[in-house]
Write a structure and sequence with these properties.
DUF4398 domain-containing protein; 109 residues; mainly alpha
Length: 109
């Protein structure tokens, strides 16, 4: 609860808080054309550090062929199919190596 002395003395409100809601908007609206012009001017600037990195063969290269999005997102084989194919390949190699090792052991006196 406030004492009578506190209720009578009021501090002056800073001018930034006393402004209406539209004044800050008007103040910033003056900066918008300047910021827009600066953004447009910087977008047209040449960036030699980026442009000079391309070698002549890359600069003259054709664009890559476009691929349908469905093909890019869903490759033809799944991970399970690839895993099974790898397992089959490794088992076949293991069998070939075991047969070779048996032949070499049998050939030694």
């Amino acid at each position: 609860m406030q004492s009578p002395a506190q209720s009578k003395t009021r501090l002056p409100m800073p001018s930034i808080c006393a402004t209406s809601g539209l004044d800050p908007l008007r103040r910033h609206s003056r900066l918008f054309p300047l910021l827009a012009a600066a953004a447009l001017a910087s977008a047209c600037a040449r960036v030699p550090e980026l442009e000079d990195r391309l070698t002549p063969d890359l600069r003259d290269a054709a664009y890559p062929a476009l691929v349908p999005l469905e093909d890019a997102l869903h490759p033809g084989t799944s991970a399970a199919e690839e895993s099974k194919a790898l397992e089959d390949t490794l088992e076949a190699r293991d069998a070939r190596l075991q047969a070779r090792a048996d032949r070499l052991r049998a050939a030694q006196p």
